[in-house]
Amino acid sequence: MSRLADPAKDFPQWYLDVIAQADLSDYSEVKGCIIFKPYGYALWEGIQHDMDRRIKALGVDNVYFPLLIPASLLAKEKDHVEGFAPECAVVTEGGGKKLTEALYIRPTSETIMYATFAKWIHSHRDLPLKINQWANIVRWEMRTRPFLRTLEFLWQEGHTAHATMEDADEMANAALKMYEDFDRDFLALPVVTGRKPDHEKFAGAYYTMTTEALARDGKAIQAGTSHNLGQGFSEAYDVSFLDANGKAQRPWMTSWGASTRLIGTIIVVHGDAKGLRLPPPLAPIQAVIVPIYKSDEEKAAVLKAAGTLQESLKATIRIRLDDRAEKSPGFKFNEWEVKGVPIRLELGPKDLEKKQVMVVRRDTGEKTPMPLASCTPEAMTALLADIHKTLYAQAKAFMEEHTSSAETMDEFTKLIEGKGGFVWAAWDGTVESADAIKQQTKATIRILGEQKPPKGAKDIQSGKPATMMALYAKAY
Fold it and tell me: Is the pLDDT of residue 85 over 90?
């Protein structure tokens, strides 16, 4: 295997090297699209399996809607159309003939779903309506990067309809909390959460909330979003219901989603100079046994002991015995490190003499002998839990070390261009000031703070009185 680029010197190239050497994806014949290779797709399967359980716990059912959306449906919500039109792919011919109506390849599904909601919702008894879709999405991105930004990607999109604004608020916040818990418990990702400014919200939404992680190159990455869509889509698609008094009302909608961008997020948050470091709940292989021997006699004894160890653990953890004779132990060590396997168990003749196995942690690199009798399912489960805890603590410490505040534009610029990360600053609430900062530094507002700005605080760019605190960062 070739060496990875140094992440401290060339983070973008390191990212691509990790994907290639961990065998996560390949480039397709369509520029801007990727092929998910088995190990990479296994990560998505793990994400999908655990998140689907959490989504269903919110009382949401899975559905599937068509990939193609009639242009007339998309056109009904003006803000939505304007927001997505530049990214849309359009089908104008089918079966060798020009279509009477253009069909958009799904950039998101609000339009086609809510036109159907108009058929499904009639009474307050039909509410709340809660559905989720696991699907592919196409958005015509100009600059692509595997997992982080591609023309086609995979995601889940939840869509709900409610009788009141309060119910929609509760659902939107529940979805955001679900993402936050999932990020922490399954991906070992610390995130900040909050509301987006209006100029950064989802096209057509009443408001948008987000979870934001911080990559090791100091850039923010949006991990999931949740939107209260208000009643605009209900109005546009003529969705209504009769309340308990027989009066016609418009339901309040929410939508929320997370995508295969989460795979990229795991790489840029947890990865190190040796490659991936996978959170144990997600890792397709949680532990790998690497046998070490020189002679045929040693080989037989070591492989027998390794097989016995695998058998004792395989019902509890996802474990693999790497008995490939054509690969050296050193090659295997490097390969499984790049792939981010949380635990490596090394077993050789000297270990057998001492009735031990050498345990190597991917999170810290710590190498410790453990008695074979102590290498039990309970011990490995506890170790995996500790590795997850450590990965989260490391990422959280990095985020805290790279979260700053600035009171002047000069101070802000030095922080953004220097150590990077998140920077809190007072904002006057205008798009003009936010855009000016973006043009000057490439930093954008990731979330708005719940705290009020200090008395007398002024916008760092315009000098006008601040109305709120904003968390800025450069972002993917």
Answer: no
